[in-house]
Amino acid sequence: MTEATSEKPMRQRMEEYINDLQDQIVTAFEKLDPNSPPFKRDSWVRAQGGTGRSCVFAVRPDDEARSTDPHQSILEKAGVNISIVHGTLPPAAIRQMRADHTSMPLPDRPEGLPFFVAGLSLVIHPRNPHAPTVHANYRYFEITEPESTTDDDTASSPEVIAWWFGGGSDLTPSYLYEEDAVHFHSTLKKACDVHGPQLYPTFKKWCDEYFFIPHRQESRGIGGLFFDDLNEGTHKRLSPASEVKRPVTQDEIFAFIQDLGNAFIPSYLPILTIRHSLPSTPHQRRWQLIRRGRYVEFNLVHDRGTKFGLMTPGARIESILMSLPETARWEYMSEMGTEEGTEEARLVEVLKEPRTWAV
C-alpha cells in the first residue's frame, strides 16, 4: 500500500505522482542501455490550458547510417509521456465520452463541459523481435460545472460533476515466451490483490476484451489489465465493496493506481533485460513488423483514447501518435502465422484464445 489520506487536492497529488513515475521509468531504461542516446525530454504548454512533458526515444535512420558505432540501441522507439491539461470539452468529445462512460451520465451542454485530466502514458517498442512491446496508461479525470464568479469577481471552485481513475498495462510480444507472460501478469496481480481479490480477474478480462481487433478476430497482445470509471459509485463490472473488498474512496483508488504504476518497472524490465540480446533472424524481424502492423490497426481504428485525444481542442498530435511503432509491415495474404507448428502460429493461437497466466 502507498500514500494515505492527504490534504492536497487530488489534481495536485496525481500530478506530483506521474512526474515522479515518469522520471523513474525513463531513468530505468537509460540505465539499461547507457551506450545509446538518452530520451529526448520535451516540455510543452497547451495554449488552451495545461502542460506536459514528452520523453521520447528514437534514432533517426540517417543518424544510424552515419554512425561508426557498432552498438545498436535496445529500444527502437519509445515514449513515456505525461500531460496535465484542462479546458472545455466540445459536444463531439462529450458524446464520445458519454458512450465510453455509460455508468456516469454526463449532461448535454452545447457550450461544452470543463475538464481536467492528469495522466501518464507510455509505449515501448524494442528493437529485438524476441523482446515484447509494452503499453501502460494511468490517469485521473474530472468534469466540472463552468467556473462561476461572485459579485466581487472572486473566482469560486467549480463544482465537480464527475471524477474517475482509469488505466492499465498490457504486453504485446511477437514471439511467445510463456515465462514472460507469467511474470508480467503475476506482477500485476500481486499489485492488484492488495486492494481486493476481484480486481485482477475483472480487469484482466476487460483487457482481453478491449484490445481485441474485430476485423482480425485476434487480440493485439497477451493482455494485462484495463480499467476505467473507478470512483466512489457503483461499477458495472465490480461487485459492491460491501460484498467484496475493492477501493472506493479517492484515497483508496489513488493508492491502487500508485501500486500499479510502481509495478511497471518490475513487471517489464526483467523481461527486456533477458530478451533484448537474443540472436534474431530476418525472418523473425519480418514477423515482428507484421505484428506491429496489427498494433497500428488497433490504435488507429479502435482505441478510444486515440479517438478522444484527436477530438480534444488543442490536442498535441505528436504525443497522441507516439504509440505507433517506427516501422511496420503489411503483406497481402501473408503465410506467416498460419503455418501449423511454427513459433508464429503458436503466438496467433494465444491471440485468438486468451489464456490465464496468473492464478
Automatic annotation (TrEMBL):
E.C. number: 1.3.3.3
Molecular function GO terms recorded: coproporphyrinogen oxidase activity
Pathway(s) served: Porphyrin-containing compound metabolism; protoporphyrin-IX biosynthesis; protoporphyrinogen-IX from coproporphyrinogen-III (O2 route): step 1/1
Gene3D superfamilies membership: Coproporphyrinogen III oxidase, aerobic (3.40.1500.10)
Coiled coil: none
InterPro entries: Coprogen_oxidase_aer (IPR001260), Coprogen_oxidase_aer_sf (IPR036406), Coprogen_oxidase_CS (IPR018375)
Keyword Ribonucleoprotein included in the entry's annotation: no
BP terms from Gene Ontology: protoporphyrinogen IX biosynthetic process
Top-rank taxon, per record: Eukaryota
Keywords, ordered alphabetically: Oxidoreductase, Porphyrin biosynthesis
Keyword NAD in record: no
GO cellular component: cytoplasm
Subunit structure comment from the entry: Homodimer.
NCBIfam families named among the record's database cross-references: PRK05330.1
Family the entry assigns: Belongs to the aerobic coproporphyrinogen-III oxidase family.
Name of the protein in question: coproporphyrinogen oxidase
Organism: Leucocoprinus birnbaumii
